[in-house]
Amino acid sequence: MAGALAVTNGLATNGLATNGLATNGLALNGLATNGLSTTDFSTWFSSNPVGYSDMVMKYVVACAYAEGQTLSYSNGVTTFTWYGRLGLTPGWASGNSATENEQQIISACLAAHVNKFGAHVNISIRGQNALGNPIPVTTSESSTFSEPEAAFFGNLFTGEGIYACNNRGPLNPTESSARACGLSSQGTGASIECPPIQHTGQCSSICVIDKLRGDYARCTIGRKAYLPLTTHLKPSDIYKCGDGTCQLSESCDSTKTRSGISYDNCNADCGVCGA
Fold this sequence. Notes:
9 helices; three-stranded antiparallel beta sheet; globular; alpha+beta; 16 strands; 2 domains; seven-stranded mixed beta sheet
């Protein structure tokens, strides 16, 4: 299985909110040619806006299939081919019904790939696959992606929800992230930036560390334990108002007082709105 280096996120937030995993038949029929040939899947694929189903399946296959594997589907007009990357659910990928572990780990992987801005940002995904085997992480990957971000967990197949917790202190008001959906400055509750993700605060309060791997083995919400995936960023992908560049996660000073220093009111980098 390939390491997580250069895994690129960019799944739009609506891809997480309305991905259809509970209704497209893949949980029962498997993620393979037999699963794609069902009426449930073809109905789901064709009923979504142009490009939407292709986007969701791109990330589903990247999470489920190993690098070097592909999955193709034809809607009668176009043939779509999606590429594996992480190989997190070998049983489901081979056409078996998704186990609960597989449902949880795919849900976590999709959430880890969501980006509020639809931007493509390289991330390091760490944890284990549905069989309990660790995702390989190279020394180079560990040193390059050295900024802890978040852990993601839940189950999108069953409607149990999807969650994220901070794997470091919350961002301060001057800071923002090119990702936005994981590491957050807000408290607990529905994500302001990326619904339907629910923020749960600090990972240390609800998650248990695997001491051998150094990432989280499980996270528990309401007495329900989930298999999480943990993400790390490059330090340069956390931005700060005042660094001289108006980043995609920053906005102009709407107060027109030229004193805004928070990421969403940043005169220093983005100027005064309407000036």
